[in-house]
Write a structure and sequence with these properties.
This protein is of the alpha+beta class. It is built from four helices and twelve strands. The strands form four sheets. It has a six-stranded antiparallel β-barrel.
Length: about 220
């Protein structure tokens, strides 16, 4: 039987001098959305890990410390795949039962909601990103559409491939059909749908549900 060793000695509490700096991990305590947020609206979060002194031997702010800030930019998504943008900053940090300190905190990283990919600029502005799929998916479907004009002997195979962007039912119909135009029709539909959703339709909102894990960069100014 293994005998547990002594518990680690807690790090001493440091006295905060000046404006705190470093990267902190926190959890949002409010919902944020580029479509619903208003400039100047409050933003709050709590630390999920303590912020240590530069030498790592003292605690500046313990886990659970509250940060407060505000939204500085909230731009809803627009047509032609223009995604919403959201930026918020933190202005103060206050441990429970302690004194609030002024900070300059901007978003440095965050969990993305759902399957979205979140892109954060150097200024801390967050926006969802489609990544390479915005260009590669329409290009791939365009190549497959061109392939539908191959030899008649390969019609069934080409129809099954070019209708791939429309779904399983389209592939069955295309393979069963003796008319090459059916496969081409599905191919053109899949191509146009891909272009519409990636280039014409309204973009995606930048969303941070409550309890989202974020990283905040604390600067001197």
């Amino acid at each position: 039987m293994e005998i547990p060793g002594p518990a680690p000695t807690p790090l001493p509490q440091a006295e905060v001098q000046g404006i705190p700096t470093g990267v902190v991990e926190a959890r949002l305590t409010v919902d944020l959305d580029s479509a619903k947020g208003k400039q100047g609206a409050p933003v709050t979060a709590v630390l999920t890990r303590p912020l240590l002194s530069p030498d790592g031997k003292q605690v500046l702010f313990p886990e659970g410390t509250k940060m407060e800030g505000l939204i500085t930019l909230a731009q809803p998504a627009r047509w032609f795949a223009r995604n919403g943008r959201l930026r918020f900053t933190f202005r103060s940090i206050e441990p429970e039962g302690g004194t609030a300190s002024k900070v300059h905190g901007q978003l440095a990283g965050a969990e993305a909601s759902g399957n979205a990919t979140m892109k954060i600029s150097e200024e801390g502005t967050a926006a969802t990103s489609q990544g390479p799929a915005k260009y590669l998916a329409p290009m791939a479907l365009g190549v497959l559409t061109a392939a539908s004009y191959g030899d008649d002997a390969a019609h069934a195979g080409n129809s099954a491939v070019t209708s791939n962007g429309f779904g399983f039912a389209a592939r069955v119909v295309a393979m069963a059909s003796a008319n090459a135009a059916v496969g081409r029709g599905f191919a053109y539909f899949a191509l146009s749908k891909s272009i519409y959703y990636r280039w014409v339709a309204r973009g995606h909102e930048a969303q941070f549900p409550k309890d989202t894990q974020i990283e905040v960069l604390l600067n001197e100014r």
